[in-house]
Design a protein that fits this description.
The chain has 457 residues and is α+β, with helices and mostly antiparallel strands. It contains 16 helices and 19 strands. The longest helix has 18 residues. The protein binds flavin-adenine dinucleotide (FAD).
Length: 457
């Protein structure tokens, strides 16, 4: 029987830009999380906004799920098309449309990769700061939709703080421009902030205007500690002293050991803070001096400046690859990454909680994260062939999230709710979830956009 949807899609984007082959469907069925893949029915590479508008209007009329996909590097199932339907691919939308150095902004297509954007911006002396650890695969569209943060977010803010304007296509095919290119605006409801972090459930983003920052003077260092609690305490003390490092990342000894093996590095296998200082040469010197004193008071056993580009790259490679190292070197295990954020004074407790819960449930836990903004990633490593261990791994995360919420934190700082944290939405937001659902219905009354994400049903 002819497939009317396939015929329609071919008529809109051309036969070469639609696929129903097993290989293409499989390649678009998963992300980097532990969640099982789910095959879409159609994989589509749209070429312009008008095509997207026609596809959405058709999908809305026929109640066909549509899930957008960019880099596919999400960590909680965010782009997995759990109800099948159409996957709309954006990784070919990788152009910078405009750079306006005098206004410190750029306009980009959503599929451009973070590193590639910054590489091209560097010739203007500008950069887009958040720096997710997945900087070499994450796209701007994915970062906007997951509300991504990263290694520079403590000093500069997260993706949300940089999105000035968006072009979006709504579920019924309407095309909107929301926001403005002004540095600030008090005009009407802030739809831009609503779309940031919406995980493709409110509309499809086709263009992003980003605010930029000037590239600062940078100096980096490793501070090694005897215990992970000392390292976490130092992070909290640095912030309490009013220092705002360009980056402050924590890794426990197990994580460093995995990163060393995976990346072929030789970092000391002890808990550490990876620090970057940004500013003018004199402000950087001053900050380094103060931080050295603070970390020494917290038991730092070795302070190792990373002065050359090669040294800095080694350090950042370890941190960027931390999760992939844990995952790839434990292929026989379910490796699940958590993403809680707590008020900074609770950061040392958060690290201790993660390890204590691992012990309680008999599941190995590695911790690392963006210590500056109170974000801790706990990787649970649960053996598939040990009955009950994957479930106990889940329990570690569930208890850790409940604890984070009890101290005023959040279930997710940057990976989004996706599939894995839906059960905590009500606990975190209470009756506000009903308002979120109403908003979802307003934008997407027939529930075609990335169904199954954020909300439990
Ligand atoms: C090793 C590793 C380290 C990581 N470190 C970090 C980190 O430090 N900080 C962080 O925030 N994240 C991190 N992540 C998670 C992930 O990389 C980010 O969330 C990233 O921003 C996702 O981008 P992507 O292009 O891969 O998006 P995808 O995974 O393709 O999609 C993300 C979400 O956006 C939606 N979407 C994509 N494009 C569009 C569009 N055009 N319109 C509407 N919806 C769209 C998708 O449906 C999905 O819900 C890490 C991941 C890995 C594997």
């Amino acid at each position: 029987m002819p497939d009317a949807t396939l015929e329609f899609l071919r008529s809109v984007v051309g036969a070469d830009n639609v696929s129903v082959t097993a290989a293409d469907r499989e390649a678009h069925s998963l992300d980097e999380s532990h969640h099982p893949p789910h095959l879409p029915d159609y994989v589509v590479w749209p070429e312009n906004e008008q095509q997207i508008s026609r596809i959405l209007a058709y999908a809305d009329e026929h109640r066909i799920p549509v899930t957008a996909r960019s880099g596919g590097s999400s960590l909680d199932g965010n782009p997995i098309p759990v109800f099948g339907g159409i996957v709309l691919c954006f990784y070919r939308w990788d152009q910078i449309l405009e750079v306006r150095p005098e206004d410190m902004l750029c306009v980009v297509q959503p599929g451009i990769i973070y590193d590639e954007l910054n590489r091209k911006l560097s010739k203007y002396g500008l950069f887009f700061p958040p720096a997710p650890a997945s900087h070499d695969v994450a796209t701007i569209g994915g970062m906007v939709n997951n509300g991504s943060g990263g290694m520079h977010a403590f000093r500069y803010g997260v993706t949300r703080d940089y999105v000035l304007q968006l072009r979006v296509v709504l579920a019924d095919g309407r095309i909107l421009r929301i926001g403005s290119q002004a540095a600030k605006s008090a005009s009407g409801y802030d739809l831009v902030r609503l779309f940031v972090g919406s995980e493709g459930t409110l509309g499809i983003i086709t263009e992003v205007t980003l605010k930029l920052r000037a590239i600062p003077e940078i100096s980096a260092a490793l501070a090694i500690f005897p215990t992970v609690s000392d390292a976490a305490r130092a992070a909290s003390e640095i912030i309490a002293a009013g220092i705002v490092p360009g980056a402050m990342e924590l890794m426990d000894a197990e994580t460093v050991a995995y990163a060393n093996r995976y990346c072929n590095l030789t970092l000391p296998e002890s808990p550490m803070l990876v620090l970057e200082f940004h500013g003018t040469p004199s402000s950087v010197r001053e900050e380094v001096g103060i931080v050295k004193e603070i970390v020494a008071e917290c038991g730092c056993s070795q302070y190792q400046p990373a002065t050359t580009v090669a040294e800095r790259e080694q350090v950042w490679q370890a941190r960027s690859q931390a999760h992939m190292a844990v995952k790839e070197l434990n292929r026989d295990c379910v490796v699940t990454i958590g993403d809680i954020v707590v008020p900074i004074s609770k950061y040392p407790d958060a690290v201790a909680q993660a390890h204590a819960l691992g012990k309680k449930y008999g599941v190995r836990v590695c911790t690392f994260g963006h210590a500056g903004d109170g974000n801790i990633h706990a990787d649970t490593i649960a053996r598939r062939d040990v009955p009950g261990e994957p479930e106990r791994g889940h329990q570690v995360h569930a208890d850790l999230i409940r604890w984070a919420l009890s101290v005023g934190g959040t279930a997710t700082g940057e990976h989004g709710i996706g599939l894995g944290k839906r059960e905590f939405l009500e606990i975190e937001h209470g009756p506000a979830v009903a308002v979120m659902r109403q908003m979802k219905r307003l934008f997407d009354p027939n529930g075609i956009l990335n169904p199954g994400k954020i909300f439990m049903d």
